[in-house]
Inverse folding.
């Protein structure tokens, strides 16, 4: 497929383990910290979005059930008498 973009694996069969420089290790720690902060921020945003969605849903359901209840209580058609038809 598109395997030419994949970097080759490090082969440690010669007994040597790849050694990272201290600057590379420090950079990895910085990146991990930034990623952790990003994940925590996204989790907070997700939590707030769920709360907002629940509140909006509760508002919609409240309006819906209020409307259904209000329509049930209307009685203006109960006393409606059909007009007498005039025959010609």
């Amino acid at each position: 497929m598109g395997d030419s973009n994949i970097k080759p694996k490090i082969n440690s069969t010669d007994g040597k383990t790849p050694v990272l420089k201290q600057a590379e290790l420090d950079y990895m720690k910085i990146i991990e910290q930034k990623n952790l902060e990003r994940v925590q921020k996204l989790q907070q945003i997700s939590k707030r979005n769920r709360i907002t969605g629940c509140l909006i849903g509760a508002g919609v359901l409240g309006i819906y059930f209020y409307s259904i209840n209000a329509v049930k209580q209307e009685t203006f058609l109960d006393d409606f008498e059909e007009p007498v038809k005039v025959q010609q």
The mean pLDDT is 84. The chain is about 60% helix and 0% strand.
